[in-house]
Specification:
With 360 residues, this protein is α/β, with parallel strands linked by helices. The chain has helices at 29-37, 60-78, 94-103, 121-127, 138-152, 184-202, 217-225, 235-238, 247-255, 278-284, 310-319, 342-359, and strands spanning 6-8, 11-13, 17-19, 41-45, 82-88, 108-112, 130-135, 159-162, 168-169, 208-211, 230-233, 261-265, 271-275. A hairpin with a 2-residue loop joins strand 1 (6-8) and strand 2 (11-13). The longest helix has 19 residues, at 60-78. The protein is globular.
Length: 360
């Protein structure tokens, strides 16, 4: 059996693989279009996308929208495949970025880092764009489905279930991250069971996507067997030639060891998984970086109390200035050994999937 297709409404992805949206310039048009060209769903990370615009400090909302529009248009020129955007609910310009994405005729919008309850439903309904919340529990999935149906008369087109092995900000308390009760396998089964109830009630198929720590074709086989309709993968796409991060950023993945993958306390009030480096160690020792915030990009961030600006730290890392920043990464980042093309990566994943079937 080959990797099956993934259907999200009238969108049909030749592969059941969504490239996770990595923000602050890690997954932009280059990576997203390369994944889409290979039959997956390529995703542009919208958070901090305008950090490289000349007027970001003075006009950050327009800078973000301008940069997002440009990256979507570039991706469209490079691919006729499925292109999505990942927009964090915690962003202060969340709704504006959604509206801009719709105006650029994006195929699919992923909404994570918070409960996506207050959404621009009118624009979403009129556009027909696919909307996919990212959740970390059965409760969150149920709450979003019921709220959207009651207040907007719409349903998610799919749901991504992200477990605690993911990179970046995590939707779990620190003590839950390594607790088997909160494993992706367990949460996924609970969400699938709950979603099946709503599918029958409302007569709509809502695919469930597994995410968080999925690294190999064997992992894909495992989660499809558990009932997932597809998977979301981010970490493994970083070490590709088409990834929009700097070579120094990618080499952090190639060179890291298992013990380098650590859990940090993010300034935004959530735990996060990253690759330990000099910057993280200095923060853990209590060192602070002066912060001048002109925009308040995250609803949950109080810049007067945090030790550093996470947006600036991630921007520095994207550009390769790792003494002044750090790289978010999934639990399996240490398995990355080389930088290859997206095409070669997809071929390896396909072979791993076939090998897993044979050994099952």
């Amino acid at each position: 059996m080959k990797l099956p297709v993934l259907k999200i409404g009238n969108l049909i992805s030749r592969l059941p693989i969504i490239q996770g949206g990595m923000s602050v310039g890690i997954s932009l048009s280059s990576l997203a279009s390369a994944v889409a060209n290979e039959g997956g769903i390529g995703v542009i990370g919208a958070a901090g996308i305008g950090m490289f615009e000349d007027d970001f400090d003075t006009n950050y909302r327009q800078a973000n929208i301008r940069a997002l529009r440009r990256e979507i248009r570039k991706a469209r020129k490079l691919s006729d495949g499925i292109i999505g955007v990942n927009i964090m609910v915690a962003l202060s310009d969340f709704s504006e970025l959604i509206k801009a994405s719709i105006e650029e005729h994006i195929d699919i919008i992923f909404m994570g880092a918070g409960l996506a309850l207050d959404i621009p439903a009118k624009e979403i309904k009129e556009s027909g764009v696919k909307i996919v919340p990212i959740v970390s529990s059965k409760r969150a999935a149920s709450l979003i489905i019921k709220y959207w149906k009651k207040h907007y008369d719409i349903l998610p087109d799919a749901i991504v279930v992200e477990g605690p092995k993911a990179g970046g900000h995590l939707g779990f308390k620190k003590e839950q991250i390594f607790d088997p009760e909160y494993s992706l396998e367990k949460i996924l089964k609970e969400v699938i069971k709950q979603v099946n109830v709503y599918e029958k009630e409302y007569g709509k198929k809502i695919p469930v996507i597994a995410a968080g720590g999925i690294y190999s074709g064997g992992d894909i086989y495992k989660f499809l067997k558990l009932g997932a309709d597809g998977v979301q993968m981010a970490t493994r796409f970083v070490a590709t030639k088409e990834c929009d991060a700097s070579e120094e950023f990618k080499k952090m993945y190639v060179n890291c060891k298992k013990e380098d993958i650590t859990i940090i306390d993010s300034p935004v009030g959530l735990p996060g998984r990253a690759i330990k480096n000099e910057f993280i160690e200095s923060v853990e020792k209590g060192e602070k970086r002066p912060i001048k915030c002109s925009w308040k990009c995250l609803k949950t961030c109080d810049f007067r109390k945090v030790p550093y600006c996470i947006a600036k730290a991630l921007t520095n890392a994207k550009l390769g200035f790792l003494k002044e920043g750090f790289a978010f990464a999934g639990e399996n980042a240490y398995k990355v050994k080389e930088i290859i093309s997206v095409k070669e990566l997809i071929n390896r994943i396909k072979k791993e999937f076939s090998d897993a079937q044979l050994s099952f």
